[in-house]
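Collaborator request, handled under Task 6.
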Amino acid sequence: MVDPQTQPEVDEKAMPQGEITRLGALFSWQSILFVALCTLGLAIGICYIFGIKIGGKIMLEARYYWIFIGFFGAAAFIALPAYRGQRSVPVYDLVAAAVMMGISFWFSTHAWDMVQAGWANIPAGIVIYLMMLELARRAGGLPFLIVVLVLGLYPLVADRLPGIMMGIPYSFDRMIEYHVFNTEGLMGITTKVVAEIILGFLVFAGILLATGAGEFFIDLANSGFGKYRGGPAKVSIVASGFFGSLSGSIFSNIAGTGSITIPTMKKVGYPPHYAGAIEACASTGGVVMPPVMGAIAFVMAITIGVDYATVMIAAILPSLLYYFGLMLQVDAYAAKTGMKGLPLDQLPKGREVLKRGWPYLLVLIFLTWGLLYMRWEYYAPWYACVLMIALSFLRRDTMMTPLRMFETVRAIGVLIAQSAAIILPIAFVVSGLTVTGVTGSMTSSLVQAGGDNVYLIIALGVLACFVMGMAGLAIVAYIFLAVTLAPAIIEIGGLNEVAVHFFIIYYAMLSVITPPVGAAAFLAATIAGAKPMQTSFTAMRLGVVIYFIPLFFLFEPSLVLQGDLTPLIYVLPSVIVGIIVLAGGLEGYLLGIGRVRTVLRLPLAAAGFVFSFPSWWGTLGGGIACLVLGGIVWMDNRRAATGAAAAE
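Structure tokens returned to the collaborator:
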């Protein structure tokens, strides 16, 4: 392993606002206050989720939601700085935290009337609305705030907009009532996702990382792949896949694993922009990598009314194919440039790594078993937490001592506070689109614009996914498009519902590695000391599979393990071979054959794409092209080898 002390510090200015906290030293007063708020919030959450009575009664859903908002909204005002570089907690944030708690707890006492009789207090609701917008700015930055604000205020002008954007108008007071007090807004899906569905997974991720799981996965990847050509890049891919699945955050993944893997990649010969691009791509894929994935997967499960196990199973093949393509490209670059792996004496021994880290693997297996076989849904991570805490006592350096538990609760609190600050304000987007009736009109308009042509509608959808993902966070884009675009595609094309929703998720994620925004690539470039745009364009090439695999499973749902799985017998091999050929064309080195002439790279990449497309004409035409071009590449390399031998 590389000494962490030799790693460059991450430039905080390049990081998303929500990735930075100002809690200071472990036992600073703001840290103690933050942990206290989070501990109480978690205790209430556990009581509600497991049906434990408080005062002889089980809490109403709305009452719990307001208590959750009170504790973790206040915690977010303590942890998240108002501007970059702010290290202390000013008095106005303490006041904001107190106001957030006070109003939310007061609302919780009216939960029954709120649900049964439509109780609302508009002045206090306006205060909560404004405070949520401020948390959106702190957690997601100004672009995210603009998206939430514009779409949230849409009901005020819905009747004045042209075409598909025309909807039912509402007064400001009526809009606040829907945004804050109704199930279309804060009392609906977004709060349910944070306060119920992903809460246990965030706690699980915090406990795993606090007990050393991050270091274990990096060491495990090093022991398995570090000795091969381009080993550090392959380690980055594997480690980031594991880490991203646990954390659910692209940016935390880059900052956490990238600070170790990027310098190691540079050390063995990868250019800075290439090393940064690899980490950006690997971290992006982690968010849709089972078993945990990110919050967006849970939103999808609720939106289409399936259990989480269905979503997790559907994500397996696309994730593996994405990482397979990424691995092929870094291997091709290493082969083309003559890179070697790290010396064995610099790598951890696999047996020793497994000996000390087997509890982490056992807990992940247990979690997967609980999700898939036992169907425990969001109870599964809580049971896994108990198992992980118990197993932590097997080793002195991982056992949950009071000090380590304090550190763990703080880390968990940061994950929850950041997630709440990003996801809760999305309630205003959902409410704004729902109450105005624009979702139905947009679906009809998309169908009309596409002229009943599913391919044209999909093309419009790809553009919409990318633009929405670029303007804000992927989860905002997904929620918007899941209620507007998805019904149109399903209605016209008769396509599988799970495949359509995954299609939207994948394309909404593309903006984090794609210019001109490319936030993930830009952060990785900062760590690598590379040019951001160059890193982003390289990330586009390396992550090419994520650009076209959604089209594949959209038209062949067996790739997301939906419907009849028989086509996998011939579709999956053609996709795998196609990715191999595509990667060879893009990187200039075909696996098992050798270098590809520049003039052949684009035709070879195109042939690989066509061959992997799930259709008989694609398989036939692309297969012939792959054979012809592959034969030419083989002959080129044979002639080169013969010439080199003759010269010697």
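The cover message to the collaborator said: "Residues 1-19 have pLDDT under 50 and may be disordered. The radius of gyration is 25 Å. Please let us know whether this matches your experimental observations."
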